[in-house]
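Appendix C. Worked example: DUF72 domain-containing protein
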Amino acid sequence: MTRILVGTCGWTDPSLLRSGWYPPGHRDPDKRLRHYTTRFPVVEADSPYYALPAPRTTRLWADRTPPGFRFDVKAFALLTGHPTRSSALPADLRGRPRDEGLLAEVWDRYAEALAPLRDSGRLGTLLFQYPPHLVPGPEAEAFVRAARERARDWPFAVEFRHPAWWLTDRTAAFLADLDATAVAVDAPQGLPTSIPPVTPVTTPRLSVVRFHGRSPHWGTGSKEDRFRHAYTAAELADWLPRVRALAARTEEVHVLFNNCCADAAVTAAETMRNLLTARLPHQAPAADTPAPAADTSPR
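Step 2, the predicted output written as structure tokens:
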């Protein structure tokens, strides 16, 4: 049986907190995360992209979530080649040359910070989202391969933001050779930066789909402009055959919503969960997954 886990990218976005989705009295981190786990069985932790977390923080995440819950964790910006402010680095690493030695040290601290999630069985995958300026070619492949080598003992997922990666079959073969999950995306189409909605399976253990919304301002404007989109049931239903096809070939599928404006992401996630459940009325939730949040599909 494949577990199809539906959730959102983050659970502490300020606009979500203002939306009223969390019940009154759920302002502190403990109650917010515990409430989230009653609704969804997976979440993407985005904050490690901006700053390295402390092991104490991820230990609390593990303690506040039930067995079977999954965290997909974004890689720190420096590890994926994004512009990274010195202030985002630990104080003792600021001012060091941005070379392989610094990358290795940052990776070691990132891995140390995520060890509580892995040790508790709550780590879904590391998510290495590469920037649009990383275009396919030998140098780019070497950069990704070096990251995979550092993370060779970890689950590893890759999202490319330059569309040229998915204009060739080479990309899927490359990620399969790395034993890395290819992240599929739903994003606006018809723009120069549009990523096609391809769904290659590159490892049998996990598939990931991230829904970014369909704003015409994708790639430009503010964060709110880029991600402001309320998915309709029809738009999500179009993805059901693709999600089922992924479930037929992998042990677990994570469906994550990144249209993080107010409660749009949690609303879309709930709609997708309900659509999957409605299409599979004979299925029961997985035993180790919270009943309101679990969706399953036969392999």
